[in-house]
Amino acid sequence: MSANAKRWLVLAAVAVACALPFVLSNFRTFQFTQVYIYAIALLGLNMLTGYNGQISLGHGAFFAIGAYVSAIMMQQWGIGYAWTIPAAAIACFVAGFLFGLPALRLEGLYLALATFSLALAVPQILKYFEHWTGGSMGLVLSKPEAPFGLPLNPDQWLYFLTLALLLVMFWLALNLLAGRIGRAMISIRDNHIAAQAMGINTALYKSLTFGVSSSYTGVAGALSAIAISFVSPDSFNIFLSITLLIGVVIGGLASVSGALYGALFIQFVPNWAQDISKAAPWAIFGVFLILFTYFMPNGIAGALRLLEARWAKRRNAGAAQEGGAPGIRNTTS
């Protein structure tokens, strides 16, 4: 597919996304808002795992930090929700960068175990600071109304706000990964010794990647707190971190568009599994997971790239046959 065709496809997808809140119910609109929130978090985790090769089982912790930064600023300090989103991004960047420094000595399963412990610890720490976080009861927030007198209900407004931030953060990620920093991240993933030999500061880039990845996840957490209007430590258990990793793998490692496919999977497939069997929904979800990983080992984005490559190959082969047939006849005659 040509670059121009891809551009028109993206514009068409954005146009359809903008029309959805006006044809769907408030509940479905909220569900798609959650899809975009998950997509932002998955994109951050994919930059760390897919592009930089660092395995994390603890990004639910940064999701929780972003959500609580937004909730505390809104409820305790009376700050507008729009200001809490960049604050959550900055707080999670600092937390991720600082966590990435000691994690430089760890790789593979050891890094996964360290991040796993982070995901276990953060919800318990949040319960300890009850004065700020509300303890186990959490914090209840007010869902913001649409500004400037826009004729949108709160669910529709938060949908468009999340969609706008999703597009901005996807654009930033594409530019980051296409530049020098992105090439350095990928080279560290492929062979960190060779990257270091070429003069790349592997320690700095790995820590920065951890910080940027955490920042994306923190923005998703802040948006989630605003959209759901409630935060509780039990909402950010280890299962959230595992779900985010599942979304990255199903969507496609080292793929920006894969974040959106993975978000659709983790938002809707569990609901479908529950509709199929209310007695054992997670068994059905496991079957879906096995089928996706078996038939799409490179994720949904990888499967789509493969189909596109096969289609282009067949089209080129057909064009070559049509163009070459007259030449053969002329040579024979």
Topology:
Layout: H1 3-19, H2 26-51, H3 59-75, H4 81-100, H5 109-128, H6 130-133, E1 139-140, H7 154-178, H8 180-190, H9 192-197, H10 202-228, E2 230-231, H11 238-251, H12 258-276, H13 281-295, H14 299-332
Antiparallel strand pairs: 1-2
Give the strand line-up of the largest sheet: 1-2
Instruction: Kindly name the structural category.
Output: mainly alpha
Here the CATH topology equals ABC transporter involved in vitamin B12 uptake, BtuC
Please write the string of helix (H) and strand (E) elements: HHHHHHEHHHHEHHHH
Can you describe this structure?
- With 333 residues, this protein is mainly alpha-helical.
- The protein has a single domain, classed as ABC transporter involved in vitamin B12 uptake, BtuC (Orthogonal Bundle).
- The chain is 77% helix and 1% strand.
- The chain has 14 helices and two strands.
- It has a two-stranded antiparallel sheet with strand order 1-2.
- Helix 3 runs antiparallel to helix 4 (81-100), helix 7 runs antiparallel to helix 10 and helix 12 (258-276) runs antiparallel to helix 13 (281-295).
- The protein starts with a helix and ends with a helix.
- Mean pLDDT is 90; it is low at 327-333.
